[in-house]
């Protein structure tokens, strides 16, 4: 599938009807979503025929993109039932097979590194401090091959340090810088739209030894 | 929710030492056909907890899977086995029911195929 085609399909997805500011619910626009998944697949082979998880899936944009690019199984995880309802509908409309799980990422119970790739546009941590790193912590426990994530460019050094030093990543690379177009969603938004500079990261987790370990994933700061 | 997802989920309630596998309570199972991918099945096979998977498939009403995991060489040539593996792993959906923590008995409801694994305050 061509990039433009993917971007176009993603543009038809329904987004949050009543976004919740405390969860930092912002739609991942088709421009960013298509580029994230396209890079993951074409540069690194991390999507087609793989098991892909979309953490904090919201309305399911990244998961849908993964499915469209040939992921064998996509699992979308989010804390909010309303978003999951919209994500389900989006998947159905595009005839995509996606499993959804309602869960708080910070206490996700997961049996180890069975998922190949995690893709995510996590909360940036403007409402709940450190939320971005919490998501990364869990993603690196769950993924066996790679984690693709978006973080504010202004946090680049902090994210790199946290990933390599604290979260057991064997590598942490900024693939490119993108503009995240944030529409005027919330009352405190003064402008009609702003662009935030975000880094598209690729993290590689350290592999745990192959045994079936029950990883009760808990965030270290809790 | 497919059994592939079930094979990864565990209970993370405070104090639970091994929350895997979650016991399945069925109210409604739906079958949805998807195209078979032999290479994918061969790759995922070593990662599956077979006992949990075959037990779960039986609860979902599918009795064709062997209780013991077959030798990996079976997946190279036995198309019939691959078909059954594929069917149980990816084509059976728990639409309505619950997932039950094996240690505490706490039920996580499954509605419209989506398990609700949110913990109460005293479980965190």
UniProtKB/TrEMBL annotation, chain A:
Methyltransferase small domain mapped to chain residues: 43-129
A Pfam cross-reference name: MTS
InterPro entries: DNA_methylase_N6_adenine_CS, rRNA_MeTrfase/Polyamine_Synth, SAM-dependent_MTases_sf, Small_mtfrase_dom
PROSITE patterns for this protein: N6_MTASE (PS00092)
Gene Ontology terms for molecular function: nucleic acid binding; rRNA (adenine-N6-)-methyltransferase activity
Coiled coil: none
SUPFAM superfamilies documented for this protein: S-adenosyl-L-methionine-dependent methyltransferases
Gene3D superfamilies from the UniProt entry: Vaccinia Virus protein VP39 (3.40.50.150)
PANTHER family, per the entry: RRNA N6-ADENOSINE-METHYLTRANSFERASE METTL5 (PTHR23290)
Family named by the database record: Belongs to the methyltransferase superfamily. PrmA family.
Full protein name: Methyltransferase-like protein 5
Naturally occurring in which organism (per UniProt): Durio zibethinus (Durian)
Automatic annotation (TrEMBL), chain B:
InterPro entries: Trm112, Trm112-like
UniProt-listed Pfam families: Trm112p (PF03966)
GO molecular function: protein heterodimerization activity
CDD domains per record: Trm112-like
GO biological process: rRNA (guanine-N7)-methylation; tRNA methylation
PANTHER family, A to Z: MULTIFUNCTIONAL METHYLTRANSFERASE SUBUNIT TRM112-LIKE PROTEIN, UPF0315 PROTEIN-RELATED
Oligomer and partners: Interacts with TRM9.
Family: Belongs to the TRM112 family.
Record-given protein name: Multifunctional methyltransferase subunit TRM112-like protein At1g22270
Taxonomic path: Eukaryota, Viridiplantae, Streptophyta, Embryophyta, Tracheophyta
Gene expressing this chain: LOC111292414
